[in-house]
Amino acid sequence: MLVECYDKKGAEVYEIIIKQIFQDLVLGASVDDLKAYVNPDDPVFVLAIKMKKTSKVVLFKDVANLMYNNDNDVTTILVDNENYLPNILKRLWRLFSRDEIYQPNRYQLELSGNHMDLESLVVDDPHSNLQRRIYDAIFRILPEGFKIIKDLSTENIVCVVATDELIKDAWIEKANEYISELNSGI
Description:
Distance between the termini: 11 Å
Structural class: alpha+beta
Number of helices: 5
Radius of gyration: 22 Å
Strand order of the largest sheet: 1-2-3-11-10
Largest sheet: 5 strands, mixed
Order of helices and strands: EHEEEHEEHEEEHEEH
Number of domains: 2
Shape: elongated
Helix content: 25-40%
Number of strands: 11
């Protein structure tokens, strides 16, 4: 972790804040590296965080079996992995009303009609979940009042430039520098 600031005490304080927020949100093990640039004289905060690799997306067919019964026109979903049941229900409730989903027992769901196309529906996306948690941390770390934010994130690096003024090109260059350094492991 690098917190770059001309004021050594200010850098130490921000390092403590970042570590505390990462600890509170249990993010430490999910992050490879972090670089921050703080300059109180030129009100800017640049934060770039490299995420660790996550497992791949989990599809419906990975955690449940779908069967369509042509006779009664019902798709039955048998949940194999109970850990994903809340995610499955959440996804189904977005697509159908709660009244359309019949749950005769804990591991079985039924829908009227042929819904075999649900097999390719994403139930869980660990990369997206981690990214969302990192953005949550960033918005807790950013100084109060820094409402002008430019997101420069890439696939595995979350990077933002924040200020209370117009964003300068030099700050964007600094963020791009951090992205390059994190990508190359510097």
